[in-house]
Design a protein that fits this description.
By secondary structure, the chain is of the alpha+beta class. 24% of the residues lie in helices and 24% in strands. The chain has seven helices and 14 strands.
Length: 252
Amino acid sequence: MRLISWNVNGIRAVMKKDFMSSLEQMRPDVLCLQETKAQDDQTLEALDVVDGYHIYTNSAEKKGYSGTAILTKEEPIAVNYDMDIAEHDTEGRVIAAEYSDYILITVYTPNSGSELKRLGYRQTWDSAFLNYLKHLEQQKPIILCGDLNVAHKPIDLARPKENYNKAAGYMQEEIDGMDNYVGAGFVDTFRHARNDQVKYSWWSYRAQARARNVGWRIDYFLTSPSLKDKIKDADILNDVMGSDHCPVTLEI
């Protein structure tokens, strides 16, 4: 199985930027998308040209904001949306697809914001989301993917000293949230497969950050520990363009 996760920063925008050729080259069995920035019908309309996949979408109440989608060749046993927690379920951030051997969850974790106005909410989210994952894990092993909006370790961003406790995505509170996922047993598949390889999955649009590779690794695949031995590879596809993020992959 080849699984790919990609924050596309607008599904309608990325469809105009060689998305179809990228999809053909990547050949995913499952493609999980974040930040679709479209309502369900708009996402489905944008993806109407894609053949061979079952498509599931979750959109925010606020138009043009957030949103997630799953494109899967194998039809899931069941698909569920959101966490069933009112304060967290208005932004289309979570989809869970159940298969015979695992539950695949895609998530677009809330950003704390440039002025850190949502840092407190982000901590509430992280706690609730971890509880949600552990509840699902009682049923089957978990594969979690998406934009977690945090660089976990200094190796995961180009300028750790300049950003630590100053910028959203590298605040200690956010790092603690990621520590809690790992502490609960979830495996960071890229670090498992690639050890200390330096690769990033997001770059600011400012100051030619991508061309200079001044980036952050904030997009992940995490798995339950019971799936650790099934991880064949995990990678970051830096050469795939179209968004300020690039796709990340997991082969199991």
